[in-house]
Design a protein that fits this description.
The protein is α/β, with parallel strands linked by helices. It folds into two domains: 183 residues, 3-Layer(bba) Sandwich (FAD/NAD(P)-binding domain), CATH 3.50.50.60; 141 residues, D-Amino Acid Oxidase, Chain A, domain 2. Helices cover 31% and strands 24% of the residues. Strands 5-6-4-11-12-13-10-14 form an eight-stranded mixed sheet, with helices on both faces. The protein has a six-stranded mixed sheet with strand order 8-2-1-9-16-15, with helices on one face. Strands 3-7 form a two-stranded antiparallel sheet. Helix 1 runs parallel beside helix 5. It comes from Phytomonospora endophytica.
């Protein structure tokens, strides 16, 4: 029986642990504080279309594959994780933002991705809470959402039920892990263990609460600044989109909160009346090309599963499938080849 040691009990680490345990492997997950990283700060958008950028074709294909796995993945967990298939609206306020929306629409069409360009009136009919200033929109019907906090709890339960063991200890060196295979899934803290250039990218997130009136995820560009509002069924609305290179600083900053609220309220004025419940900071693991490190490393015993940047929640199902397959068969799945950790 293959003994697998996984460093990191976030969404990625627990998904791999669950899949490996299901394959009959002996699994230990090492983490002193499961869920204390970016996994439970993230908003939970599953947005392969909304997050698509020029020059990221391999990452887009992996994201689309993972998004297609999400319905079965969510159902298999067997509990409510807030999974919703209601799409998202990308909206613009002024002419400059509208021009960027047109460019994104052209990009989506070029890739054959589902996205519908909307007039200002059509956009507001889809989401009546939007500001009258909205000048246009793009509906991404393939975008979904999940509650990462519920997801993390469900994954921890599923992994342990399948036979994985949680070891509450800090690991700084994979050589100290007693296992046949060691998977590094420690997010922004993975770099030193892999001798890889993984940088922490800070993201600040606000959680508001009010009437459950907002019906869909809204993503906007306000004077060039990205912002999103993600509603939950219970009336919670998650606001985010900041991105800053500040090392491992986890300080919630008033200026970031102000900018997020200013831009979100410009798009959805009613949010000004919502209760501000939480301001949290997370560190996304970024790589040189903002694509994950997935697969074998220079150490034949060590496998990387990190560097997912903004897409950790979205890519969890496909990462779990592919990394567990690699461990079980000893062969690198073709879908992992563009994300070889040794590519830099």
């Amino acid at each position: 029986m293959t003994h697998v040691g996984i460093v990191g009990a976030g969404t990625i680490g627990l998904t791999i642990a669950w899949r490996c345990a299901q394959r009959g492997m002996s699994v230990d997950v090492h983490d002193p504080a499961p869920g204390s990283g970016a996994s439970t700060v993230a908003a939970g958008m599953l947005a392969p279309v909304g997050e698509a950028h020029y020059g990221e074709r391999d990452l887009l294909e992996l994201s689309l594959t993972s998004c297609a796995l999400w319905p079965r993945f969510a159902a298999e967990l067997g509990v409510d994780i807030g999974y919703r298939e209601n799409g998202s609206l990308l909206v613009a306020l002024d002419a400059g933002d509208r021009a960027e929306l047109d460019r994104r629409h052209d990009f989506h069409r070029e890739l054959g991705l589902p996205a519908t360009r909307l007039t200002a009136g059509e956009t507001r009919r889809r989401e009546p809470l939007l500001s009258p200033r909205i000048s246009g929109g793009l509906h991404a019907g393939g975008d979904h959402q999940v509650d990462p906090r519920r997801l993390h709890t469900a994954l921890l339960d599923a992994a342990v039920t399948a036979g994985a063991r949680l070891v509450r200890r800090h690991v700084a060196d994979p050589s100290t892990v007693d296992a046949d295979v060691v998977v590094i899934a420690a997010g922004s803290h993975s770099g030193p263990m892999l001798s890889a250039a993984i940088r922490p990218v800070q993201g600040q997130v606000l959680r508001l609460r009010g009437p459950a009136d907002l019906g869909t995820v809204v993503r906007a560009t306000v004077n060039g600044n990205p912002v999103y509002a993600l509603p939950r069924a219970d009336g919670e609305v998650v606001i985010g989109a900041t991105s800053a290179e500040r090392g491992f600083d986890l300080t919630p900053r008033a200026g970031d909160a102000y900018e997020l609220l200013r831009d979100a309220i410009a798009v959805i004025p009613e949010l000004a009346e919502y209760e501000l419940r939480e301001h949290t900071v997370g560190l996304r693991p970024g790589t040189l090309d903002n694509a994950p490190l997935l697969g074998r490393t220079g150490d034949p015993r060590v496998i990387a599963a990190t560097g997912h940047y903004r897409n950790g929640i979205l890519l969890a199902p496909v990462t779990g499938e592919l990394i567990s397959e690699l461990i079980a068969t000893g062969r690198t799945p073709e879908a992992l080849e563009p994300f070889d950790p040794r590519r830099f």
